[in-house]
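Practice record 12: protein with pyridoxal-5'-phosphate.
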Amino acid sequence: MRNPTATQLLFEMSCAGRGTEVFPASDVPDVTGVPKIGADFLASGPLPLPEIAEPDVVRHFVNLSTLNMSVDSHFYPLGSCTMKYNPKRHERLARLPQAANSHPYQSESQVQGLLSVLYEMQTMLAEISGLPGVSLHPAAGAQGEFTALLTAAAWFRDRGENRTRVLFPASAHGTNPASAALAGFECVQLSGGRDGFVDLEELKAHLDERTAVFMVTNPNTLGLFERDIAVVSEMLHSVGGLVYIDGANMNAILGRTRPGDFGGDMMHYNVHKTFTGPHGAGGPGAGPIAVRDFLAPFLPAPVVTFDAARNWYSLSVPEKSIGRVRTFFGNVGILLRGYFYIRTLGGRGLREASENAVLNANYLLSQVKDFLEVPHGDRCMHEFVASAKRQKDLTGVTTMDIAKRLLDYGFHAPTVYFPLVVEEALMMEPTETESLQTLDAFAGALRKICSEPAELVKGAPHSTAVCRPDEVNAARKPVLCWSAPNC
Ligand SMILES: *Cc1c(COP(=O)(O)O)cnc(C)c1O
């Protein structure tokens, strides 16, 4: 049942006369001769604030907080986002006063412990990637891409090379071309092979002395490991270009293989995906980057260095640093959660997490492929992309309808309509933290939806507070308040 009170605004709940005047009359003497605020800037009357009793305000916000879905409340198979469970233990650890109460302007001598943790985080990320230079600065994967591209551009400039192009396959995440454009490069999109992999012939035809970087997600956004990645890397290196590995899908390969080992020159991590930092309303996140040794002198400043002779951690500026890409030294709170996760699991644990993520995805794939098309094979890495094209052609039910109907069954929708190379795409990533029962329940709901009458599915969701908002207008012209004249 839709819950109307949950969608009421505080302004609509307001009842004249319930407000409380909290400010006493001013007892500050009127000082003559001091310039006063001009009448133009003074309110002409009391602000039209809602008048509501405290319990009603509390209920309003508590009810609102239950309308959203989260990994703590629902299964969240959002492909490419790795919505794994965020261990509560790491939340508690990150809140320890030694971390939470430290301030970025404290002197090095006062934060040696915190710097040692960040240094260790750099070291662990270098080991996991096989790329020795690490910057913890970027606040998200997208900023990591941008930062790494600036680092590469500085390296090319330093060598007197003027390379202008960044290449990426059509299945790339939208942030790849956006970062390349922002970093001043010309974007060249490859269409890719029919089988979902980079088409080597097509790539070859585009490589020349203008090529700066090839950006590739591996495993790619279809959930397939780019089997020719070593050849791709050689091709890039033979024309003097670099390979950027978009590390958003690291959850598939932790401890199995490393971007540095299959030819990547730089990469980003998404701590909020792979290493259990919470994804929260666009931030805060962390998108550390790892690069080859020759790129390390260009990394953003500062990096944490360790002087073993003095047993001392310092914040240092790499020799040819591109400068700062954000304040201080990264989103430390999120980096700490990632640090605790890596330390909790250890090398073997991380590898097991990846193995289970891949196992779960393959199990889910096996459960849905008899009623949903899966165009790119019947094996996957940590995620796969199904298609509702058949449903759309037969009954008119689209991927969007299925996604909306899942909400009625208590499941967050998968990623929809991405990657663009699959029609009516449903990209599912269960992650390793879901049980067999949850995966079965989810597959069961999908199976049921695919056999329900089209009108029922097309009208979904039927149980949420709002049905289908106009998404473009909701984002561009949000109605944030009731139509009070001055708010
Ligand atoms: C999530 C994602 C990004 C962007 O990362 P953010 O941390 O959201 O900025 C880039 N590429 C891929 C493949 C992703 O899934």
